[in-house]
Structure formats: structure tokens, C-alpha cells
Amino acid sequence: MNCRKAKALFSKLYDLDLNPETQEAVNKHIATCPECRSQYTDLEKAMIILKLLKEVELPPHSADNGNPSLEKKP
Amino acid sequence: MNADEVSLIEEAKKGSRAAFNKLFSNEQKSVINLMLQLTGDIASAEDLTQEAMIIAYKKIMGFHLESSFRTWLSKIAINLFRAHYREKRKHKTLCLERVRIPSTDDRPERIIIKRELQWCILHNLQYHLPEKYRLALVLRDLHNLSYKEISQIGGWNLAQTKIYIHRARKKFKEQFINGKCKAFADDYACVCEGILDL
């Protein structure tokens, strides 16, 4: 597997959406190619950072009051 | 879809507001979050969610359980988002005050850096990712939806969906690595030991 092919499969690798043979080939390439390893690590870091947005807190009136406003604004 | 949800949907179709309210309240937080992640603005997120609720209530008879109620409701909200925001987007400063973070953390430096980082992420999503990439990324990586669910919501086929997710992640990563987010992320990693220690 070359760098171009490996990079094209990064997203599927992250989602574990590859067949076992392809997954093994990409992992093998990443293990031996510093540039691809660095790029895949950056992708994983970026995804961890993105997930910080899950922790954004909504104002109390938005969703946690358990009282949908259908009755108020039909 | 579980039996309770199916039962509530059937009741709502028969005209039960209580059943509809229960269905909606189960998904309300998820939809507001989704709209916030797509618009970057809590007031807009609340307005779009409110509009989506009214449309869902009117159209519940046309919902034939092809997907979960959450997916169906999210799709309505996303269609509203697309209609309202497609042509209106401008590169502007997001209001940091509107991005709230949980107050359970007792380390002020962590709160401040995390807040900056969340602002950066929202900014990147809003202004540096095309709408379809933003949608694909948010649904996949923040709402953990399957490829199939994302393709239903986005109106894309499975192959397109996978391509959009791939390109969105790549673009977000490049923007993140090349932009100011990286410095905040490094600071955050320093303060929150181990979180980025891959």
C-alpha cells in the first residue's frame, strides 16, 4: 500500500469500516511511514478536540425543563 | 426503535398532544445541540428547534417509521437550517458569551482554555467547512449516527455520505492543525494531562 491509498482510507480506518485485509494493510503502512502516522495521529487528535463540542451546555430553559413548548406556541 | 416510542408515535397520530410532547421532550436536547453545532448560535438553535417541533406535530401523520423519531425530527430541523442559512452565512465573530460550558469543573484555567477551544471548533465548523461537510461531520462524530442515518438525513447515497465524512474530517483536521485552534489544544492538553496523549 502506498501513501496516497492509505490516506484515502483514513476516515474508514477511523470508523473501522474496512475489511480485515485492507485494515491490516493500512495499519502496516502507518506503522512504517512516519508521515502517514503523523497525519493519522493528527486526525485522531482533531476528532478528540471536535468531541469537546458535545459538552457545550445549553441554557436551562432550552432543553432540560422537560416541558416542550407546543402548548405555549401552538 | 423501541416499543414505547412506536406506541407514543401511534398515540400522537391519533391526536394525543401528551404523547407528542413526550416524544419531543425525549429528543429536544439532541436537536437543540445539533442546531447549535450547525449554526453556532443558541438563539437560532432554539428558534429552529421550536419550528421543527411545530412542523413535526403537523406532519406526524406522514411519519411511517422509516427511521427513528430522532432521525425524522433531525431531518426536519436540518431542512429548516438549510433553508434559513444557506445564503445568509457571513464570516463574522461568534459570540463567545453564548458558548456555555458545564460549571462542574473547578479548575478556572481549564474552563477558560476549554471555552476558547469550543469557540474555535464552532468557528471552524461555521466558517471553514462547506455546509454538507459540516452536516456530515456533526452527525457522524458528535451525534454518532450511522452512515445510513446520515444518508437519510442528508439526502445523499451511502457512497456520497462516506466521501463527505472523509473530506469533512480531513478539512477540519487541516484547519485545526494550521489554525489557532492548535495552540489552544496544546494548552488544553497541558492543563488536562493526558487528554490528547495519543
Give the gist of this structure.
The complex is a heterodimer of chains A (74) and B (198). Chain A is an all-alpha fold and 74 residues long. Chain A contains five helices and no strands.
State the shape of chain A. Answer: elongated
Low-confidence stretches of chain B: 91-99
Rg estimate of chain A, integer Å: 21 Å
Q: What is the residue-mean pLDDT of chain B, rounded to a whole number?
A: 82
Summed over residues and divided by their number, the pLDDT of chain A gives a mean of 82
CATH H-level name of the largest domain in chain B... which superfamily? Winged helix-like DNA-binding domain superfamily/Winged helix DNA-binding domain
In total, the number of strands of chain B is 0
CATH class of the largest domain in chain B: Mainly Alpha
Most extensive protein-chain contact, per-chain counts: A-B, 37 and 48 residues
Major sheet of chain A: none
Oligomeric composition of the shown chains = heterodimer
Tell me the domain tally of chain A: 1
Topology as H/E string of chain B?
HHHHHHHHH
Describe the fold and architecture.
The complex is a heterodimer of chains A (74) and B (198). With 74 residues, chain A is mostly helical. In chain A, 61% of the residues lie in helices and 0% in strands. With 198 residues, chain B is an all-alpha fold. Chain B has two domains: 88 residues, Rna Polymerase Sigma Factor, Chain: A (Orthogonal Bundle); 107 residues, Arc Repressor Mutant, subunit A (Orthogonal Bundle), CATH 1.10.10.10. In chain B, 72% of the residues lie in helices and 0% in strands. Chain B contains nine helices and no strands. Chains A and B meet through helix 2 and helix 4 of A and helix 2, helix 3, helix 5, helix 6 and helix 8 of B.
